[in-house]
Design goal:
With 135 residues, this protein is α/β, with parallel strands linked by helices. It has five helices and six strands; from the N terminus they run E-H-E-H-E-H-E-H-E-H-E.
Length: 135
């Protein structure tokens, strides 16, 4: 599975990249530190799944979803965030996020969530919010 990372925190991106590159079935094909660069790079080399931070300079991860959904309706989009508020989560799903993960997630749980989302399986995790949640 080809994954693209988007987060303005270079240390977090590096940590996630190290975690995911240990997995034989996951390939990091690109990364960006803001929404504008992410859109440009993803349009050139579309991944199977994007892991996108909500709060970034330029345009937010939520806006990145809106733009990507126009061109890549089948791409899996997983938001990664410190925000656990209903408004942010609802807006992410309204614009087409496939899932929402809290940044407090541990390495093995993140890998499990990414694999399950990519394979269309159900995800049971206290760190994951799925689009069918009722608020």
């Amino acid at each position: 599975m080809k994954v693209f990372l988007v987060d303005d925190d270079a240390l977090l991106r590096m940590t996630i990249k190290i975690t995911l590159t240990r997995e034989r079935d996951i390939e990091i094909i690109g990364e960006a530190n803001d929404g504008f660069n992410a859109i440009e790079k993803i349009k050139m080399y579309p991944p199977d799944l994007c892991l996108i931070d909500v709060d970034m300079p330029g345009i937010s991860g939520i806006e990145v979803i809106r733009v990507l959904r126009e061109d890549f309706p089948q791409m899996k989009i997983l938001l990664l965030s410190n925000y656990n508020d209903e408004s942010t989560i609802k807006n992410a799903f309204k614009l087409g996020a496939d899932g929402y993960v809290l940044k407090t997630v541990n390495d093995s749980e993140l890998v499990k969530i990414i694999r399950s989302l990519s394979n269309g399986g159900s995800i049971e995790s206290s760190y994951f919010v799925n689009p069918s949640i009722d608020f």
